[in-house]
Amino acid sequence: MRSFILISSTCIFLFLCICSCQNPRREDDRKTVETTLSGTRMQSDILMGRAFICTKDDDIFMRSFYPDSIAIIYSMSGDSLKRVRSFGIKGRGPFEFNDYPAFYFKEDSLYIMDESRIGDMLKLTVAGIDDIRNNDGYENWKEYDLQWLNPFMSGMSFAPVDSRHFLVLGDEHGKENLLTEIDIREKRKHPSEYWIADDYSGPAIPKQAIYLSNSEIAINDSLLVFAAGEGRYMEILRLGADGSLSHRCSIYDIPPVYEATPDGLNYKPVIPSYRGMDIRATERFIYAVLNQYNPEYKEYKGYPWYCSDEVEVYGWNGDFITCFATDTPFYDFIVSDDDKTLLTITQDPASGEPAIYRYALRFSE
């Protein structure tokens, strides 16, 4: 009897060890919700925006569902949305774009980075946000060739340092680096030598791939935030005058757990695992939504499996500010530059159509 109990205890211990190794959860892997916000559904005839790009005053710039354009603008008036115009023709000509370019809004300019369907870098387009809104033509738009970067393994996230220097998520295939500073006028690049320490010991390409996949960066003067698309990893870096990067602080330091595929060209997450996060940044705060691990694609509180309803807020010094929930789960969000308004987009459970909600943010007052 005693030997049976000993064997049973040993089996239970081994089982718990295996479970803990396969499910590396930590108590500090999320923040506790402090309040729940009530939102207002914005009324519109047919909403053709599928995800947020930026906001400017009462205008919302969104990625478009339309087959012939990449983006659409709506204007808020009270609790209503009015369509202003579409922009960004799909095509291969001047000031035309492929299906899903990357965007960055800074100082009243919208930067659009485009790549081909096979992953080659194509061009960077810069346009004034008012020129786009007012449909003033392409006279003041600028295009910069990026094909000189190829071959380039891109994460399709970038941030302008100044008018000619940009930090781009990516580098040549197989390089132990995740961020590259480029000079669009001189057509020069400088690897930032940014390579996250983790327990992986295989070839470089799978590690590059997992840290570039769905990851995001945002910049605020000399500070840069990197949020990984897998794992639970968010770090604030300091950008030196010479383009060098140095660690300032970690908000989350749980790297992804993964292994290389047999061909050594891709990664395979060790299941279950953390599934990264989505971020938005203003001059004062960094907003983060932690993605749920949901292998069975179960509905989230009556909404699609990819929705969330919690937002964590941090200062650019890494300090935790607050964590709030929304009364309606969402799949994308954006915050106004003055940190007073949160906009979310969700899928209406009854109609299946997209819907936008607006929330007032009080914590920044």
What topology does this entry show?
Elements: H1 2-22, E1 35-37, E2 40-41, E3 49-56, E4 59-64, E5 69-77, E6 80-90, E7 96-97, E8 102-106, E9 109-115, E10 121-128, H2 129-133, E11 142-145, E12 153-160, E13 165-171, E14 179-183, E15 188-191, H3 204-212, E16 216-220, E17 223-227, E18 232-239, E19 245-254, E20 258-260, E21 267-269, E22 277-281, E23 285-290, E24 308-315, E25 320-330, E26 332-335, E27 341-347, E28 354-360
Parallel strand pairs: 1-25, 6-7
Antiparallel strand pairs: 2-28, 3-4, 4-5, 5-6, 8-9, 9-10, 10-11, 12-13, 13-14, 14-15, 16-17, 17-18, 18-19, 20-21, 22-23, 23-24, 24-25, 26-27, 27-28
Detailed description of the structure:
The chain is mainly beta and 365 residues long. Helix content is 10%, strand content 47%. The chain has 3 helices and 28 strands. The strands form 7 sheets. It has a 5-stranded mixed sheet with strand order 1-25-24-23-22, with no helix packed on it. Strands 3-4-5-6-7 form a 5-stranded mixed sheet. Strand 13 and strand 14 form a beta hairpin. The longest helix is centred in the N-terminal third of the chain and has 21 residues, at 2-22. Residues 1-23 have low confidence and may be disordered.
Percentage of helical residues? under 10%
N- and C-termini, Cα separation: 66 Å
Please report the number of helical segments: 3
Mean pLDDT, to the nearest integer, reads 92
Structural class: mainly beta
- Principal-axis shape equals globular
The profile of the biggest β sheet is: 5 strands, mixed
Unreliable stretches (pLDDT < 50, length at least 5) are 1-23
Strand content: over 45%
- Across the major sheet, the strand order is 1-25-24-23-22
Radius of gyration: 22 Å
Give a count of the beta strands, DSSP E runs of length 2 or more: 28
